[in-house]
Amino acid sequence: MRSHTVFIALLCHALFSHVLAAGTIRSIFLFKDVLKSNTTALQTSGFNTLIIFGVGVLPNGDIMYYSNTPGSKDVLVASGGSYVGGDALATKVRTFKTGINTTVTRLEISMNAQNIRALMASPGPGATTPLYRNFAALKTAWTLDAVNNDDESVYDTASTVSFARMLGAIGYRYTIAPYTVPSFWAGVVAGANRDLKDLLLDKVYLQCYDGGAGNVPATWRASLGMAVVPVLWVINDSKPVYGQSPAQAREQFAQWSREGGGMAGGGYWNDYDIEKMGSSYEEYGYVLQDVFR
Ligand SMILES: *[C@@H]1O[C@H](CO)[C@@H](O)[C@H](O)[C@H]1NC(C)=O
Ligand SMILES: *[C@@H]1O[C@H](CO)[C@@H](O)[C@H](O)[C@H]1NC(C)=O
Ligand SMILES: CC(=O)N[C@H]1CO[C@H](CO)[C@@H](O)[C@@H]1O
Questions:
Q1: Is residue 20 assigned to a domain?
Q2: Residue 10's pLDDT is what?
Q3: Could you say which residues of the chain have pLDDT below 70?
Q4: pTM over 0.85, yes/no
Q5: Cβ(180)–Cβ(207) under 8 Å?
């Protein structure tokens, strides 16, 4: 009886830990071409969420994967309702979640807002439109879980919400990566999640570097009505003043915890700089595993 009770307690503990872990984000934005970055390191350093940067929509609803890596070219990945990005790229992206020993369970693509307003006006968000069919095809080809909105210029609430709801109809979750204008983002959160118990907009990746360097997670939680995932910039030679070592990142997450929390996990911008600067994926990943269990 006693050992039975202990067994049940252990089982409950295991299930509970798993539930906790499943909701807590340990993320990194993939700035480097996924065909060139260190896939093994991304799979095995404790990250559970990878956000592929960046994707963009053309005026006709086609989807591009933009290269941010010297020597790489932009790739058309969806057109005419089909995936056209090639097998090598699709296999590489799918491998993030399926590789041996991978800790990755969630894959997102990050995009700007170019052409979304015009496409939501005409032809609209319907299931027969090129945009809808292209996002459906890309989701299947890359086994995507969510689309991340990194709008830093357009800020049109109505078209953003109708696009988010369109993605929800396809089966995506929707996430945002704000650095400023909390009132705009609060409108997007409210509109995207209106009348939904199972939230469509389920994660907020808060930029806490560069233009967002003064952001505090607890303040944004109050503005948006949901906990956020603060994102720090790793050591970088572009704007070194915003670069955080693993030890500095740990201290920053701890400080925000003392300042009221409001965090649903943590993350970094970005893998390219980790590799360029010879930093350690494991050390950055370990901080997230330790702080956001
Ligand atoms: C990729 O990462 C793994 C695991 O961290 C490491 O052992 C390997 O040396 C790295 N490969 C390259 C080419 O840097
Ligand atoms: C997976 O992890 C186990 C345990 O750490 C290790 O022995 C094995 O070599 C790993 N497999 C691969 C393919 O990395
Ligand atoms: C993500 C990012 O902007 N990385 C930059 C880091 O610095 C190098 C060198 O200036 C740039 O080439 C990267 O684009």
A1: no
A2: 45
A3: 1-22
A4: yes
A5: no
Indicate the number of domains in the chain: 1
Residue at 14 is within a domain: no
134, two tokens: 């292209």
Q: What is the pLDDT of residue 22?
A: 52
- Interatomic CA distance for residues 65 and 110, integer angstroms: 10
Asked if the structure places residue 7 within a domain, the reply is: no
Pocket test for ligand 2, best of 38, 44, 101, 282 (most atoms within 8 A of CB): 101
- Residues 6+ away with beta carbon under 8 Å from 194: none
- Confirm if 99 and 91 have CB atoms less than 8 A apart: no
Asked if residues 49 and 105 have their Cβ atoms less than 8 Å apart, the reply is yes
> How far apart, in whole angstroms, are the C-alpha atoms of residue 137 and residue 131?
10
Q: How far is CA 63 from CA 25, 67, 220, in A?
A: 26, 13, 31
Q: Where are the alpha helices (DSSP H) in 67-171?
A: 87-98, 116-121, 130-142, 157-170
Q: What is the pLDDT of residues 231-280, one digit of tens each?
A: 999 999 999 999 999 999 999 999 999 999 999 999 999 999 999 999 99
Which CATH number belongs to the domain containing residue 83 in this structure? 3.20.20.80
For ligand 1, mutation pick of 38, 275, 284 (most atoms within 8 Å of CB): 38
User: Residue 17 falls within a domain, yes or no?
Assistant: no
Q: Which two tokens stand for residue 25?
A: 């984000």
Determine the structural domain holding residue 140 and report its residue range.
25-291
What is the tens place of the pLDDT at every residue in 61-87? 999 999 989 999 999 999 999 999 999
Q: Find the residues whose C-beta lies inside 6 A of ligand 2.
A: 100-101
